[in-house]
Design a protein that fits this description.
By secondary structure, the protein is α+β, with helices and mostly antiparallel strands. Helices cover 33% and strands 31% of the residues. The strands form three sheets. Strands 1, 2, 3, 6, 9, 10, 12 and 13 form an eight-stranded mixed β-sheet that branches. Strands 7-8-11 form a three-stranded antiparallel β-sheet, with no helix packed on it. It has a two-stranded antiparallel sheet with strand order 4-5. The relative contact order is 0.14.
């Protein structure tokens, strides 16, 4: 994720064929073969890009074979006047591919572009740009998906609020035993349903936030205790990263119940 957390890790491929694009009634379709005009949309070689937002514009698209599947390469541009902090695509099997800068503080500035790669079954013929969250906490697109994206951000924020005081104590402590105790406090941050009693998306946000924090310190989430403390530089970097992310999260989750 300055990159955002993505739910799919795919190889970079290059655009090999792009004959044209048409924006019609909020539905975007790219031409790779014969085109048939319909009411409010276009069908192109059996593949359609549907857009439920006006803020993200599709700038380019390519499709490449990837084993028995296809790799779809999209370039999206933020056409709004506000920073985008998360967006979500919907695959034909109803699973989502989400780009979210909650853990790192990533944003997509107005007029900036972002590339996303999505692996689909060869039989799929549609991909939907589902929802967008802005830096001020507002959203556009499918209302249910907007709520889920905001819940995820609140889960990250709540975990960071637990972790930052521990990290600052770790940053300011020189006694080895105290430092190890603070590291073990981080390892024991809550990330289970029984501990948090939160929605699925808030829980997912809290889990990813904990994983990100431990990754910043080169710690494993599988360990219950650690015998070696992280370096001071890694702790300082983690504090700086979380403080940056919290500044943005405070704005994007303002008024949302934690």
């Amino acid at each position: 994720m300055g990159g955002a957390l993505r739910k799919m890790k795919l190889r970079r491929v290059y655009i090999t064929l792009l004959l044209g694009a048409v924006i019609l009634g909020g539905t975007l379709s790219f031409l790779t073969g014969a085109t048939k005009r319909g009411a409010g949309q276009q069908e192109t070689d059996r593949f359609e890009i549907k857009n439920e937002t006006s803020s993200l514009k599709l700038a380019s698209l390519s499709r490449e074979p990837f084993g028995d599947e296809i790799l779809v390469n999209l370039t999206l541009v933020n056409a709004s006047g506000k920073a985008v902090v998360a967006y979500s695509l919907l695959k034909q099997d109803t699973t989502s591919v989400t780009t979210d800068g909650a853990t790192t503080g990533w944003i997509l500035a107005p007029q900036a572009s972002d590339q996303v790669r999505v692996l689909l079954p060869a039989s799929d013929s549609k991909l939907t740009i589902r929802a967008v969250i802005f830096g001020d906490g507002s959203g556009e697109g499918n209302p249910r998906r907007i709520r889920e994206l905001l819940d995820y951000q609140m889960g990250v924020r709540s975990q960071y609020e637990r972790a930052l005081p521990i990290l600052r104590r770790l940053q300011n402590t020189t006694h080895s035993a105290d430092r190890l105790a603070r590291v073990n406090d981080l390892l024991n941050l809550p990330d289970k349903t029984a501990e948090l009693q939160a929605s699925i998306d808030k829980l997912e946000g809290a889990k990813h936030a904990k994983q990100f924090i431990l990754g910043q310190l080169n710690l494993s989430a599988e360990s219950s205790r650690v015998l070696k403390e992280p370096s001071a530089s890694k702790v300082n970097d983690a504090v700086e990263t979380l403080e940056k992310a919290m500044t943005r999260l405070a704005a994007s989750t303002k008024g949302q119940g934690l």
